[in-house]
Design goal:
By secondary structure, the protein is mainly α. The chain has a domain at 38-135: Calponin-like domain (Actin-binding Protein, T-fimbrin, domain 1), CATH 1.10.418. The protein contains nine helices and no strands. The chain has helices at 5-11, 13-42, 50-54, 58-67, 87-104, 114-118, 122-133, 137-150, 174-203. Helix 1 (5-11) crosses helix 2 (13-42), helix 2 packs parallel to helix 7 and helix 4 runs parallel beside helix 5 (87-104). The chain is rod-shaped. Residues 14-41 form a coiled coil. It comes from Nothobranchius korthausae. This is Leucine-rich repeats and calponin homology (CH) domain containing 1.
Length: 204
């Protein structure tokens, strides 16, 4: 028989601790993934408390405008006089962000609710942001530009093969060959005559 989670928690307190630790680890992973998705595109460093920085919808609206310029026409932002937005303005930002996601093309199944954002529910917010950044065409263009800049400039130009000059020795003319042969025969004939003369002198 399979025990339910409640029965396991009542029997084994360590099971409850392990489960809470796993949930905490999953939330931390989701938070880091969500932080990377936003920071890498907006080129900003978000506060350590990511959930509270997303509650007012300001960062999310800027993210939507990064994916599709002017998709959020007006954004309520804090001011030095009023450093914290009212709940009404926060909700307006959140609703404008979700409306922009719909216009960009995020499916209804991937959209979180305004309650998820204002209550810092990371899992549905992460799903919406991940679906939104899939429409980021600027990231594709950057990759194409990097690939083109990485390719050598000489690929487009035709390379002309280097011409190597080879010098060949021309054979001597025929009269030079016969001249060499004739002089050799004369030397041989002289040697024969000298040998004959020497032999004749010895005999006499």
């Amino acid at each position: 028989f399979l025990r339910t989670h409640k029965s396991l928690e009542s029997v084994d307190p360590q099971f409850t601790m392990r489960r809470k630790m796993e949930q905490l680890r999953e939330e931390l992973e989701l938070m880091e993934q969500l932080r990377d998705l936003i920071e890498s595109r907006l080129k900003v460093v978000l506060p350590e408390d990511l959930s509270s920085s997303l509650m007012d919808g300001v960062v999310l609206c800027h993210l939507a405008n990064h994916i599709r310029p002017r998709s959020v026409a007006s954004i309520h932002v804090p001011s030095p006089a009023v450093p914290k937005l009212s709940m009404a303005k926060c909700r307006r930002n959140v609703e404008n962000f979700l409306d922009a996601c719909k216009k960009i093309g995020v499916s209804e199944s991937s959209l979180c609710s305004p309650y998820d954002i204002t209550q810092c529910r990371l899992q549905p917010v992460h799903g919406t942001v991940r679906a939104l950044v899939a429409f980021d065409t600027s990231a594709v263009n950057r990759k194409q530009d990097e690939a083109m800049s990485a390719s050598p400039a000489s690929c487009g130009s035709s390379q002309t093969p280097s011409v190597v000059s080879v010098t060949t020795q021309t054979p001597p003319p025929a009269w030079q060959v016969w001249d060499i042969i004739g002089s050799s025969l004369v030397h041989i004939l002289c040697l024969v005559l000298l040998f004959v003369a020497y032999s004749w002198s010895e005999l006499t």
